[in-house]
Amino acid sequence: MNEITDTLLHYFTFPFVRYALIVGVLIALCSSLLGVTLVLKRFSFIGDGLSHVAFGGMAVAAVFGFTNDAVIVMPVTVISAVLLLKSGQNKKINGDASLAMISVGALAMGYLLMNLFSKSSNISGDVCSTLFGSTSILTLTMAEVWLCVIMSIVVVVSFLLFYNKILAITFDETFSQATGTNTGFYNLVIAVITAIIIVLAMNLVGSLLISALIIFPALSAMRIFKNFRAVILCSAVISVIAAGSGIIISILASTPVGSTIVAIDILVFFIFCTIEKLTGGIRYCQ
Amino acid sequence: MALITCKDVSLGYEGRSVTEHLNFEINKGDYLCIVGENGAGKSTLIKALLNLKSPVSGQIITGEGLKPTEIGYLPQQTVVQKDFPASVWEIVLSGCLNRCDLRPFYNREEKQLAMENMEKMGISNLSKRCYRELSGGQQQRVLLARALCATKKMLLLDEPVAGLDPKVTVEMYELIDRLHEKDGITVVMVSHDIEASVKYATHILHVSHIPLFFGKKEKYVLSGNGFQVDKSREASENE
Fold first, then answer.
1. Which residues of chain A does B70 touch, with a Cβ-Cβ cutoff of 8 Å?
2. For all residues of chain B together, what is the average pLDDT?
3. What integer pLDDT is reported at residue A93 of this predicted model?
4. Which of A76, A176, B14, B148 could cysteine-pair with A181, CB 3.0–4.6 Å?
5. In terms of domains, do B138 and B161 share one?
């Protein structure tokens, strides 16, 4: 036991390990907040779709030789998010079809561009680390850490301010609209925040695993808790603990960061399912 | 001046009209039932009254200080709501949202209002229960309490008894009737149940591709329109 704490303390003397932990926990917090709304609005797959778009954006950025790819990735992803959430109302190509189209399209184009134009000698390594996040969380620059901290504050503050509106719109969009809430605007806010979280989370878990970060804590929390506030709080706590312990385990056991975090999320989900089976859930809680 | 006046309104989708030349008014204290077959434009009419959809032609005018956002709406249930993890209290309170404007949280007055309306609907004891664990009738009461939080003047109910068993259906109708009689709330209800409509309503609007009838219920019974519908329904059931 002492050996483990010693190793941990030793690792924490490196700034990149501390950065990774801070960024990881913040991203996990943000994604779990939005996760509940996205799952309930039947948008679970939007994270997946958008992350593929972000992957395509990254490829384009790499082709043009941008060192800071967030310049391209962020706007592209935000625009796709807005278009996708809007197209939910467009009946010609329905929501899930357009999502599938955009997501595989962007993935294919991204890989194609990377293969054709990349100057790197290790393309499959690059692709793998973008898809699964492997080490990018440990190579963050100071600027990226600050970007992540600021964006997380923006996400958390706007979520708190719009909490009641988000609840009302998620539960019943027509009613909210009929009683004078500007649902279009709040849907836009949700879309933009989702896109921001996804771009940030690509560093942590890579683009293929982002959905897991968004949906698992929300689904676990919904197993047990029966009111919205408790679900949100529980989902945030699960996500933060899973991300924190995932990063520490991955450092100690030299496992890939992203998949370790997701593995813990899955474990928590099954634990919560079992608790639900045993107790029938907590019926009364405020 | 009526609360809502419809002047030669035509409704439809993408330029194709479903119902044409609707002329009617809703006055304070009315209990209007909108009846008609499926696809006759009842839901479209509701959306137009709520300002969610503009009519193809004609005008819908609100008067007597009624803002379009002050209509309490009881929608039909959606799939999303069936497994929604929210407590009854959270849902009823969300009806107060239009009183908040830019204020992010509810104040004491709004919480008080939510509590009174739960009392009125007889669901105070369910306050902490999860919405998805309630029976159909209880869920409708929750949504009705939420609608009451959004309005003091007018309720718009979209098939409030759909999917309820006969006993609960009667209770629901009595509850709505009490709101109309005791609290003086104007009620507009879309219904398939002509018998109940005639029993409780003061006015009937029968929509079809052309408007069949608008007026007091006594005249509606004499007009024979309701019987037409009943006969056609019987015919289709016999087939």
1. 179
2. 81
3. 54
4. A176
5. no
Residue A198 has pLDDT above 60, yes or no: yes
Closest CA to A21 of A145, A188, A183: A145
Of B69, B84, B105, the CB nearest to A171: B84
Kindly list the domain boundaries of chain A, sorted by start residue: 2-279
- Res B194: pLDDT: 80
Q: How confident is the model at residue A233 (pLDDT cuts 50, 70, 90)?
A: very high
Contact flag A180-B71 (C-beta cutoff 8 Å) = no
Q: Chain A within 8 Å of B65 (Cβ-Cβ)?
A: no
Question: Which of B107, B125, B197, B40 lies closest to A164 in space, CA to CA?
Answer: B107
Topology given in CATH for the domain delimited by A2-279 = ABC transporter involved in vitamin B12 uptake, BtuC (1.10.3470)
Instruction: Please indicate whether, in this complex, the C-beta atoms of B130 and A160 are within 8 angstroms of each other.
Output: no
A40 CA: distance to closest CA in chain B (Å): 7
Residues within 8 A of A (CB atoms), B 80-109 only? 80-81, 84-87, 89-91, 94-95, 97-98, 100, 104-106
The contact set of A with B (CB < 8 A) is 40-42, 160-165, 167-168, 170-172, 174-181, 222, 225-229, 231, 283-286
Per-residue pLDDT band for B237 (boundaries 50, 70, 90) equals very low
Note which residues in 174-203 of chain B have CB less than 8 A from chain A.
none
The pLDDT of residue A97 is above 90: no
Query: In this model, does residue B41 exceed pLDDT 90?
Result: no
A260 close to A250: Cβ distance less than 8 angstroms: yes
Judged by CB atoms closer than 8 Å, whether chains meet at A179 and B98 is answered as: yes
Token pair for residue B111?
């919480």
B110 and B31 in a common domain: no
Cα B152 to Cα A255, B117, B145, distances in angstroms? 61, 11, 12
Domain boundary among B152, B169, B195: B152
Of chain A, the end-to-end C-alpha distance in Å amounts to 39
Asked whether residue B224 is assigned to any structural domain, the reply reads: yes
Tens-digit pLDDT profile for residues B168-203: 888 888 888 888 888 888 899 988 888 888 888 888
Buried (b) or exposed (e) across A155-191, using 16+ Cβ within 10 A? Answer: bbebbeebbbbbbbbbbbbbbbbbbbbebeebbbbbb
